[in-house]
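ugh ok so i messed up the first submission bc i forgot one of the chains. this is the corrected input, ALL of the components this time, i swear. 520 residues overall. if the numbers dont match what u have on ur side tell me asap before i send this to the collaborators (the ones from the other lab, u know who)
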Amino acid sequence: MYKKMFLSWIEEGVVSIPSFLFSYYKKIGLTDLECMTLLHIYSFIENGNDFPTHDEIAERMTLNVEQCSQLIGSLVQRNYLEIIKGKSDNGIYFEKYSLRPLWMRLIDEHILNEKGEIQAQQKDEEGNVF
Amino acid sequence: MYKKMFLSWIEEGVVSIPSFLFSYYKKIGLTDLECMTLLHIYSFIENGNDFPTHDEIAERMTLNVEQCSQLIGSLVQRNYLEIIKGKSDNGIYFEKYSLRPLWMRLIDEHILNEKGEIQAQQKDEEGNVF
Amino acid sequence: MYKKMFLSWIEEGVVSIPSFLFSYYKKIGLTDLECMTLLHIYSFIENGNDFPTHDEIAERMTLNVEQCSQLIGSLVQRNYLEIIKGKSDNGIYFEKYSLRPLWMRLIDEHILNEKGEIQAQQKDEEGNVF
Amino acid sequence: MYKKMFLSWIEEGVVSIPSFLFSYYKKIGLTDLECMTLLHIYSFIENGNDFPTHDEIAERMTLNVEQCSQLIGSLVQRNYLEIIKGKSDNGIYFEKYSLRPLWMRLIDEHILNEKGEIQAQQKDEEGNVF
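and heres the new structure output, hopefully the right one now
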């Protein structure tokens, strides 16, 4: 039986989150709870469910469903999370979450940060010269 | 310059979190904020800092330092997080965080869950027989 | 344009491979090339293609298609890789690769290894006693 | 005992490899065996050993030590792998591997690829216009 448990552990796998999300999410305007909610959505997507219901998400969180719904609504409205609507090949309409807006903001923040560092370095070097 | 930014992104890497942490943390008694704090500590450890200060952690969170300190104290006390004290080869004392208690609880929960599923399956099969 | 490249990098993501695969694959009877081929198949599966053709795999490898086909055939035959056949909900037949046999062998090897270590420790402790 | 095995599995963790390495390594001039060797070195680094010996690497591979040494020498010479020499804070000289040259080549290839796609799209759109 233990082997079966081991196997399900391996097959469930890991969720791999860019390290910079942890260092940047506050700077790009997210609260701890909002980031946690995005991590849950990411975890669902990575495991093959790209449009989890508010109930499914809230079931895993200590937030209740109303708080969760409100928070997700706000994330969509403030453009951290996108709901994509489409029509599949066999004509079925679908909706799915996309974290693309989040990644775009992370990239912007990263670029800003690195530019800042490079400028700081240049100032430093100039300072050393004179 | 963009190449340098790209490189730092790759070198900073990802934090790989067992999927089951997201589905189980509430069941094992953690709140969303407590789990988020553990993820920050994990992220620091993975990037080579195994004893981040409360200030360093709070700087990345919307929690303030006092809340963060209190929360970490509670996690240690309730045995989700461990502080290991030791002496390195060259005689320097150190402290570091270990997430081992968290993993042990996750494993226990996983075993419990899988047992439940297996029993449910057996009942189901018995039900089908009669 | 650089932002778009960054985005595709993030969205393409990482392939997360159990560390033990690297330390154990030789012990469980795989060659370097066989393991590399399994990693390619794993990478395809993780990116949503669970039955890549031999051509698709060989295109990424310095092996040619014939060598690749032969190698995959041998992996299936020797039970490191499984081809699962099924019928989807809308009645379409499908085939897909499963790495379950590989994970089972890794688990067996890991159990064997840990048992060995525990026994060695016990002997060591007994040795210390007398 | 199974819990302990589970724990060591979690603590050993995963090696997270950029997906593009699998799709690009052949294009940037690496053979399957060379890429596998780089993956081993990466796995050692990720697990805290940043200068594994040729013996340690070859022990996990079906290549023998001589072949492994030769292959690593060639990777360094052709600038896919770098050996960094330095002096630590307490005055000890060290050597360590860096995969930075590999990442730089991957980034270059990725930029080239995306540019190609964008140009192909533009041509396509122009074609559609007339």
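quick check: Chain D has a mean pLDDT of 93. that seems consistent at least. Chain D has one domain: 25-129.
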